[in-house]
Amino acid sequence: MNACEQLSDLLSGYLDEELTQGDYQKVDVHLRDCPACQKTIDEMRLFRNAVASSQKPEKLADGQWEKIVNDLPGKASAGTGWVFLIAGVLTLAGLGIWEFAVADDILIGVKIGVGAVGFGVLLLFVSVLRQRLISWRTDKYKDVKY
Ligand SMILES: [Zn+2]
Question: How close is the Cα of 13 to the center of ligand 1, in Å?
Fold first, then answer.
């Protein structure tokens, strides 16, 4: 039995820091000179980290899941609210502009003036909306990072 085989049983204890001082030092000294065991322990560590991070959602359980889940309907309804608001405003604006443009009893100068104001308001609305969408998307990414 070579040194590597003797130590292989100690490696997982070494990772878990469950070894006695003597065993720990034995592994430590051996690891310094043995690339093969270094590789083994690196792989074990990677595997453990992968397992640990795959279990993370369950570890969130104490209140955190509740918070995330409670937060979702708020985000979703806010999104739906914006969709309805945009659809409504665009419909009203479109109808209003059309009604206004086809009305015979309004001076062309007034039409152009009011049209310009309306167009300005619409542009402002679109720019506010754009900001809102950008921050909404950034919020979503923030949530994903959990
Ligand atoms: Zn070794």
Answer: 15
Give the global pTM: 0.37
Contact 12, 44 (CB under 8 A): yes
Q: How far is the CA of 47 from the centre of ligand 1 (A)?
A: 19
Question: pLDDT tens-digit profile of 72-85?
Answer: 666 677 777 778 88
C-alpha 26 – ligand 1 centre gap (Å):
11
Among residues 89, 88, 68, the alpha carbon closest in space to that of 139 is found at 68
Going from the Cα of 19 to the center of ligand 1, the distance in angstroms, rounded, reads 17
Could you write out the DSSP letters of every residue in 71-96?
Answer: HHHHHHHHHHHHHHHHHHHHHHHHHH
CA diameter of the chain: 104
CA of 50 to the centre of ligand 1 (A): 24
Q: Which two tokens stand for residue 23?
A: 């065993």
Q: Please say whether the beta carbons of 115 and 96 come within 8 A.
A: no
